[in-house]
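Listing S7. Sequence submitted for prediction.
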Amino acid sequence: MTAFNIFCAGLIGTLFGVVLAFFGYRLFLILLPIWGFFFGLFLGANTVQWLFNGTGLLIDVTGWVVGAIFAVLSYLFYIAAVAIIAGSLGYFVSVYFLLRVGMKVGFLLWLIGIVVGVILIFVTLQFNLQKWAIIITTALMGAAVYFGTIIQILNPATNLLDNPVKPLLSHSVLLLIVFALMVAAGIVVQYGQNKSFTLDSYDRMEAE
């Protein structure tokens, strides 16, 4: 890959991370299929690799299939989109924390991530916390995309699909602090923008 291509990819990745972190709620309807696809890609790849010890083509195919299903569900149904984004928040945060305290990658880590994700979906829907789930998740993942892109450029051998939180864990404490500050800033900015704005729910199948 040429230096120009690396620069363009880095620019796109970092800009997308900033937009996601600071304007995620307003752009949620546009971002839904993209979000659903990439979370499905991560989850499908993790499931096959961590649960079934799959490799290569099986991981790739499963990730693409799950990603496509999540993208379609996010586009068609608001309730599915909220469930996916709340579930992704629970999954990524729990996996990150457990890796941080030393848990090894494997079935137990995957299972805990799934269980926490399901619990967060239930809490979000039960107590009508959709706005907060979207704001927190987009701020968190926007910052992750921003710093993940930078790390990927500096170290092309980094495998983000294998373990999207590992790159942050393997770098300095200062990087984690800056990451946390970006997440906090994204939450504050998005909350200020959307105090009096709430997304309308939808069912595009019913609309047809």
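Caption to Listing S7: primary sequence and predicted structure tokens for the chain studied. The mean pLDDT is 83. The two ends are 44 Å apart (CA to CA).
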